[in-house]
Amino acid sequence: xxxxxxxxxxxxxxxxxxxxxxxxxxxxxxxxxxxxxxxxxxxxxxxxxxxxxxxxxxxxxxxxxxxxxxxxxxxxxxxxxxxxxxxxxxxxxxxxxxxxxxxxxxxxxxxxxxxxxxxxxxxxxxxxxxxxx
Length: 133
Description:
The protein is α+β, with helices and mostly antiparallel strands. It has helices at residues 27-38, 69-83; strands spanning 10-12, 24-26, 89-99, 102-111, 114-123, 126-131. It is built from 2 helices and 6 strands, in the order ββααββββ. A 4-stranded antiparallel beta sheet has the order 3-4-5-6. It has a two-stranded antiparallel sheet with strand order 1-2. The longest helix has 15 residues, at 69-83.
């Protein structure tokens, strides 16, 4: 949803499913929620409805992957590239680390309104997104 007063837009907040009480998200929260949805969607999932065939990189596919240091660095690059596909994102960096079987991807960047950042934790329980810090 576009909102002329907010360069990052307005949308229904629905990261991790639909909350019992639906609400709108604005600004940086809206951008981060959109990026979390992008990182939870299978690549090409929008093509069948005539939308972006290049949308999506599902982090759930990374559960139980074998992680060498080189593979972790490459994964960070892949996530940053996906985040940069959102036209509101000007710069993006993602760093992947593995701790006790959980892949943690720290995502930072800048949008027209300033910096943003959040974390994706990928484990047997699925992908959990949280605010950075």
